[in-house]
Each structure stands twice: as structure tokens, then as C-alpha cells.
Amino acid sequence: MAISIPDGLRFANFATSSQYTARPCGRRTKPHVALGDQKPYDLRLPNQRANVNSMSINLTPRIVAELKPKFEIKVDLDERSFLFPAGKSVSQLLFLSDGRTIFVEAVYPFNQSRTPPRLASLDLEDAREFGRRLIEAVHCARAQIVVTPGARISINPIANGYHLQFGDMNNATELFLGTNCIWRTCQGLLRVIDLIAPVESN
Predict the structure, then answer these.
(1) Which of the chain's ends, N or C, has fewer CB atoms near its CB within 10 Å?
(2) Would you say the pTM of this structure is higher than 0.70?
(3) Contacts of 46 (CB under 8 A, 6+ apart)
(4) Where are the domains of the chain?
(5) Buried b / exposed e along 8-28 (16+ C-beta atoms within 10 A)
(6) Architecture of the domain defined by 69-196
(7) Which phi and psi (to 5°) does residue 35 adopt?
(8) How many CB atoms lie within 10 A of CB 189?
(9) pLDDT, tens digit, for every residue of 137-163?
């Protein structure tokens, strides 16, 4: 990528994502931006459109590390776990957190249609309520619902497991879990909640 800054102070030539060279430029240097061998974009003509393809971005290891969640709990599911309306089998549930928000994500054994993994995002209080209602649904074998300003989740015991609905009922994400993995799911959720919860005073 080559960039010439309009004020004519510096001309920079970036050979790679990790190296660059800069040298002074003359007053007659055209202020332009060029990506690869595409047509340059003239900064003096802001309304002119250039035929420039999207630039690929290679994140440095430091940035990649910052994007990783601070906490991650993996829960193995069984062959009776499914996600709808995507129509996918789910092999694992991931409870991720950046220290403030808990993200519930699914791992698919096949995903040619590129279904997003994220099922729900919960703050600490919403996650606590979800954990309590989920355990009540399993212990008491009756339907439970979580309704807060930030979350709407229903939990329904069914013949061979549990049916969870995330979001508005008219456009919900539905997760079916088998009875063999429901207690692991409860444990995983409570564990990630404990990781980000404030330390209780004695």
C-alpha cells in the first residue's frame, strides 16, 4: 500500500504489514492512495470513485491476543443437541466472557452455510437469573422463563431433554439439549458466572 499525505510532508511506502519506509516528498507529489496494483484514489477529488478491492488485514499477535475472551468454559454436548432455525447439530457450548458480559456460543460439527456461533449475550445479573431458572427447570421438571430488560429466555422440559428459546418468541433461536448433558450445561454456566462475579466479603 502506498500513501501520499496531502500536506506534502511525507511519502510512506508500506512493503508489508510489519515494515514501512518513509521519505520526504516534493510539492508536486500527487496526494493519492493506492492499494496493491489497483487504480489510485486521488484525495484531491473526494467524489471520484476508484476501482479498489477490499484490503486484507493481518492482525499482529498482540492484537489477536486482545481479541480472545478473558474466560472460556467448554461444555461437551451429546448427539441429541440441535439448533434451529439454522438446522444444525451442536457438539459443544462455549461460555465466554470479557470480564463483564457472558457470551453463549455453539460449536457445530458442520457449518457450510456459515451460521454465526453466538446464541446470546448476557450481563452478570441476567446470567445469574438464567442459571437459577435453568436449574429450577431441571430439578422441578417444569417450564421456566427469564424476562429482564436485557434478556428473554424460555426453558421447557420435553420428553427427551430440554428446549431453550433465546430472544423474542416470534423470531427465537431454539436450542434442544439432551438429558445427558443438561447438568454439564448448568455447571458450565455457573462456573463462568463465578469467574466474573465480584469477590464476596467475609
Answers:
(1) C
(2) no
(3) none
(4) 1-68, 69-196
(5) eeebeeeeeeeeeeeeebeee
(6) Roll (2.30)
(7) -110, 115
(8) 23
(9) 999 999 999 998 888 999 999 999 999
Q: Angle at CA 82, nearest 5°, toward 108 and 103? A: 60
Q: 157-180: per-residue pLDDT in tens?
A: 999 999 999 988 788 999 999 999
**Are 137 and 129 a contacting pair, CB within 8 Å?**
no
